[in-house]
Amino acid sequence: MNVGEMCTREVYIVRPSESLLQAVHEMRKRNVGCVVVVEERDERVVPIGILTDRDIVGMLPEKAQVLGVTPVGECITRRPLTLGEDESIVDAVERLRLHAIRRAPVVTADGDLVGIVSIDDLLGVIAEQLSALARLVERQASVQRRDS
């Protein structure tokens, strides 16, 4: 299984010119911890940044008065780590760990946004695989005990 097979394909996006308040309302309405900031390039939707709940909390003291007019583009994490849809789950976990981040946009080989994945999503898949492996080992052990 690769990242593209298990990522969330319903990605909430904003443009860098939209207001921060609009992005906050969108995140709250959708109950998500981030939105991907995109640009359109040659009919592709390309992630140029990510706006997380942590980004918003970090800048609130200085931007609270102008939340409705501050463009998202002023508050985002630019050039976010992206994961290729063909990337393995093991590689994705390692890259997220190395960059100390919890979520990343998933892109095609051309850089087109196709989804988003979080460390929680990846851990769920890994837990399922470990559980299946444990059942296999238990089944093999019971066959060996029976044959002994």
Structural write-up:
By secondary structure, the protein is an alpha/beta fold. It has a single domain, classed as CBS-domain. It has five helices and seven strands, in the order αβαββαββαββα. It has helices spanning 3-6, 20-30, 53-63, 89-99, 119-147, and strands at 13-14, 34-41, 44-52, 77-78, 83-84, 103-107, 113-118. The chain has a four-stranded mixed beta sheet. Strands 5-6-7 form a three-stranded mixed beta sheet. Helix 4 (89-99) crosses helix 5. The radius of gyration is 20 Å and the shape is elongated. The two termini are 36 Å apart. The model has no long low-confidence stretch (mean pLDDT 89).
Spell out the blueprint of helices and strands:
Elements: H1 3-6, E1 13-14, H2 20-30, E2 34-41, E3 44-52, H3 53-63, E4 77-78, E5 83-84, H4 89-99, E6 103-107, E7 113-118, H5 119-147
Parallel strand pairs: 1-2, 5-6
Antiparallel strand pairs: 2-3, 3-4, 6-7
Helix pairs in contact: 4-5
Q: Please outline the major beta sheet.
A: 4 strands, mixed
The CATH architecture: Roll
What is the alpha-carbon Rg in Å?
20 Å
**Quaternary:** single chain
Structural class based on helices, strands and sheet pairing: alpha/beta
List keywords for this structure.
elongated; 148 residues; alpha/beta; 3-stranded mixed sheet; 4-stranded mixed sheet; 5 helices; CBS-domain
Give a summary of the structure in a few sentences.
With 148 residues, this protein is an alpha/beta fold. Helices cover 45% and strands 23% of the residues.
